[in-house]
């Protein structure tokens, strides 16, 4: 009788197989669409294991320097590392001071803490907060970028039991589905550039924007969350005060977050 009213074969897929299907999907929009197919699909797609393995697999496959620039993986980490309430503050190598001392005797150049403009996330504000670079590399307008930084990422971290104030260094961050949503648009932006224009950073705005991100990674970097980093306090702005936990339940939450982070650092 099953041939009269057959149930979809996908309903019988074992969870492990369904996880593998989701992890290897080519883009986040297919992922999200497929997650609405049934309660079982939704539960599997929404599980942390599936989401972070999908993100890991996706960045490995598509931000490989062939499909799209590998710097997109770093950009996604940089954006996540500085999310939260503005101003975003970054500890980094003081390239500007180093450059100004090029002609004098080499000295040890200390690191500084500097504000990042939330809409562009670049250190160099010599020409004002130029919002076009992140926009040209993602096609996201300022409001969407701001919402991603101040609402979506912090909320997702809270759901994962992590704290914006106690994030590990950029290299140790665990990327998630929402990072792929952002990065997917960066890949789309890159693929709109004609192949012959991709190296032409002085003519093509998108190529210039990606080159600028590479410059930020190479020249300034990000030392946030790293231990033992010396900072020139005089030339730095003060770090953001940590949010105080006012009651026992939030203290418990904080304790479990720290525990979680410690476990992850050891893993
Ligand atoms: Zn930083």
Give an account of the 3D structure.
The protein has 267 residues and is mainly α. The chain has a domain at 65-238. It has 11 helices and 2 strands. Strands 1-2 form a two-stranded antiparallel sheet. Helix 1 (15-23) runs parallel beside helix 4 and helix 5 packs across helix 9. Mean pLDDT is 82; it is low at 246-267. Zinc ion binds at residues 81-82, 90-92, 222, 224.
Question: What's this model, at a glance?
Answer:
Pfam families: F-box-like. The chain has 267 residues and is mainly α.
Please name the defining characteristics of this protein.
binds zinc ion; two-stranded antiparallel sheet; mainly alpha; 11 helices; 49% helix; 267 residues
Give me the secondary-structure topology.
Layout: H1 15-23, H2 28-34, H3 39-46, H4 48-62, H5 71-81, E1 88-93, H6 95-100, E2 111-116, H7 132-138, H8 142-159, H9 177-191, H10 205-220, H11 248-266
Antiparallel strand pairs: 1-2
The Cα radius of gyration reads 21 Å
Main sheet attributes: strand count, strand direction, barrel closure: 2 strands, antiparallel
**Which bin fits the share of residues in helices?**
40-55%
Total strands: the figure is 2
How many H/I helical runs?
A: 11
List cofactors, ions and other ligands.
Answer: zinc ion
Give the helix/strand class: mainly alpha
Beta strand %: under 5%
Strand order of the largest sheet: 1-2
What number is the mean pLDDT? Answer: 82
Q: Flag low-confidence runs.
A: 246-267
Measure the end-to-end span: 51 Å
Sum up the overall morphology in one term.
Answer: globular
Element string (H = helix, E = strand):
HHHHHEHEHHHHH
């Amino acid at each position: 009788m099953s041939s009269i009213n057959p149930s979809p074969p996908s309903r019988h897929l074992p969870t492990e197989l369904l996880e593998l299907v989701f992890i290897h999907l080519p883009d986040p929009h297919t992922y999200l669409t497929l997650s609405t197919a049934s309660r079982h699909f939704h539960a599997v797609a929404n599980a942390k294991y599936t989401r972070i393995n999908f993100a890991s697999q996706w960045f490995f496959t598509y931000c490989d320097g062939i499909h799209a620039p590998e710097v997109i993986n770093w950009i996604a980490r940089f954006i996540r590392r500085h999310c939260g309430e503005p101003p975003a503050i970054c500890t980094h190598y003081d390239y500007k001071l180093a450059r100004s001392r090029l002609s004098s005797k080499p000295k040890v150049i200390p690191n500084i803490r500097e504000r990042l403009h939330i809409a562009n996330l670049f250190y160099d504000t010599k020409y004002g907060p130029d919002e076009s670079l992140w926009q040209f590399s993602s096609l996201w307008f300022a409001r969407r970028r701001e919402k991603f930084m101040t609402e979506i990422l912090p909320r997702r971290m809270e759901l994962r039991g992590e704290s914006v104030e106690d994030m590990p260094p950029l290299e140790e961050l665990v990327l998630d589905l929402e990072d792929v949503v952002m990065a997917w648009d960066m890949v789309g932006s890159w693929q709109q550039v004609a192949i012959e224009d991709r190296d032409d950073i002085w003519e093509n705005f998108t190529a210039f924007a990606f080159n600028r991100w590479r410059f930020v990674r190479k020249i300034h970097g990000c030392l946030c969350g790293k231990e033992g980093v010396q900072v020139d306090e005089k030339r730095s702005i003060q770090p953001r005060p940590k949010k105080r936990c006012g009651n026992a339940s939030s203290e418990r939450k904080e304790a479990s977050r720290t525990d979680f982070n410690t476990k992850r650092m050891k893993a």
